[in-house]
Design brief:
Elements (H helix, E strand, L loop, with lengths): L2 E5 L7 H15 L3 E6 L4 H8 L3 E4 L10 H13 L4 E4 L2 H14 L3 E6 L9 H10 L2 E4 L2 H7 L12 E3 L6 H6 L13 E6 L11 H11 L3 E6 L5 H10 L6 E5 L5 H4 L4 E4 L8 H8 L4 E4 L4 H4 L5 E4 L4 H13 L1 H18 L2 H13 L3
Parallel strand pairs: 1-2, 1-4, 2-3, 4-5, 5-6, 6-7, 8-9, 8-11, 9-10, 11-12, 12-13
Length: 362
């Protein structure tokens, strides 16, 4: 039995937080001791506590690694819990948690990076990537490529391991859901789900709606999620007389409600580390239309969806129009999506790989 600490100070809930909690629960089910370090009030901490996982709260800022009291507090947590492996999430987690873990003698210090953003080749980043952490775990080849975009002077490639995210397929398929009723009966329902933040690029769907309207394609959007852009998006929808075409559903406890109420899933994100939502949409037998960026090509195949040039409204609408006019191909693509996910991302084998990586077992 080993002791694991998942260090994630993100306040909101997202793919990275889901991964940390899923892995904590999996490792506990295998008899290991697990704990989570996060900020007070963070969603991951609340959910972990409901699952009976030990949670330690700490307030971190970007420069907290200069604060010896913060570092010593974390050293004490690592030592008192006899942590063998710590998995770090944000840059501030890496800095504070990495230094503290080194001071505490933690054997494995893993930086789990889930975003394909480039890493600046600064001295401080080279120090942490080369001298502090023992390994980097990414969820896609695109993320590994982004880390290495500045060459080997930042970190050697063999220090990076790629293991995609896994999903408990049977649990998702068995999960109950409620079909959402659109405002009006539409010929095609377009679903989109995620945080209403700039990265997710939901604003792109407004010119898409304008173009579909011009083409005479009857449609309706189901938008799930909350965020800082919610008011702005609703205002632009109103200004363009599109209110009847958009349903803003807010945060959904059960995203399957939206997915099972849609015909096509749209992902206009500007970048993705690993699209959990793409996998769930495919499991719901929805074709996926997304930008040809980041790791999207690793979770969407030619048989399961379409990848279009970023920001190209016409190309995006062409794919929607094609599926609208070819319902048999829409259904076939959805079924192929489910089969692809079952084959590639089933959690049992994925979690086993991650467990072996974190424990050092062969």
């Amino acid at each position: 039995m080993k002791s694991f600490c998942f260090f994630n100070t993100v306040d909101e809930w997202g793919g990275g937080e889901r991964w940390h909690l899923d892995m904590a629960l999996h490792l506990r089910s295998k008899g290991h001791r697990v704990m989570i370090i996060t900020q007070p009030g963070a969603v991951i901490g609340q959910r972990a506590q409901r699952e009976g996982i030990a949670v330690f709260h700490i307030v971190l800022r970007n420069l907290s690694f200069f604060n010896p009291f913060v570092l010593l507090k974390l050293v004490n947590v690592f030592k008192s819990n006899k942590v063998d492996t710590v998995v770090l999430n944000l840059s501030r987690d890496l800095k504070c948690g990495g230094i503290s873990a080194r001071m505490a003698g933690v054997k494995k210090i893993i930086f789990r990076r889930g975003s394909d953003r480039r890493v600046r080749n600064y001295f401080i980043n080279r120090f942490f990537y080369q001298k502090v952490i023992t390994g980097i775990l990414t969820n896609s080849q695109a993320t590994k490529t982004a880390i290495l975009s500045n060459g080997r002077s930042l970190v050697y490639p063999d220090k990076i391991t790629v293991i995609p995210n896994g999903i408990d397929i049977q649990s998702f398929l068995n999960k109950n859901f409620e079909v959402l009723k659109p405002k009006e009966k539409a010929s095609i329902v377009l679903g989109a789900l995620g945080r209403l933040e700039p990265q997710k690029n939901f604003e792109f769907l407004i010119p898409v709606a304008i173009e579909l309207k011009k083409r005479g394609i009857p449609f309706e959007f189901l938008i799930g999620g909350k965020g800082s852009q919610e008011s702005m998006l609703k205002s632009i929808v109103d200004e363009n007389n599109l209110t009847d075409f958009f349903n803003f559903l807010g945060f959904l406890d059960n995203p399957k409600d939206l997915l099972m109420s849609s015909d096509i899933f749209l992902l206009p994100s500007l970048w993705e580390g690993f699209g959990y939502v793409i996998v769930e949409a495919s499991l719901s037998e929805l074709p996926v239309i997304a930008f040809n960026i980041s790791s999207n090509g690793e979770v969407i195949s030619e048989a399961t969806g379409y990848l279009t040039p970023p920001h190209d409204v016409a190309a995006f609408c062409n794919k929607i129009a094609y599926l609208y006019n070819h319902p048999k191909e829409l259904k076939a693509m959805g079924k192929a999506g489910r089969a692809f996910v079952v084959d590639q991302f089933e959690s049992t084998k994925i979690f086993k790989k991650i467990e072996q990586y974190l424990t050092g077992d062969d």
